[in-house]
Amino acid sequence: MKVTIELIDELRSRVNVTYDEAKKTLEKNDGDLVKSIIELEAKKGAKSAGTVKTNHKDSFEGFIDKLLQLRFSIKSREGEVLINVPLVLVALTFIMAFWVVIVSLVIAIVYSCKIRIYKASKYSNIKDIKYNIKETVNKMKNTTEKMFEKDDFEVTKEDDNNDDDDNEIVVE
Hints:
mainly alpha; three-stranded antiparallel β-sheet; 7 helices
């Protein structure tokens, strides 16, 4: 069946899509309006449910990942890595502590260190950083809970022995 403008307009009025999407879907389904509507609604349902992969380049995490790929490195004459941090961190330090960065760069130049800005092929992306932060917070939480449990136990032992001294203030 031939795809006409009327069919495209009808499809667009029923499903909110562009002319191009409507035309391609109708051509794919040989002009069958019902099949085209079902296909486009299924695509929209998958997008709203989050099952369709989004373009990682357009997301905020993608932007952060690209920023983290840019690295700043200082190596000594012997090739020992002195500093290897994301360039964003150097830029933030430059904004907050201008003289620290300038003095560090002058010292690196005086001692003939190699200063390099490059794009890392292997790096920690934002999801890895989120995971590491979450794991660290959980470890700290567990350790703190253990400390307080131990501390509460010791306080209850002391309280049993010193019932008379609760209202007393001693200054030495």
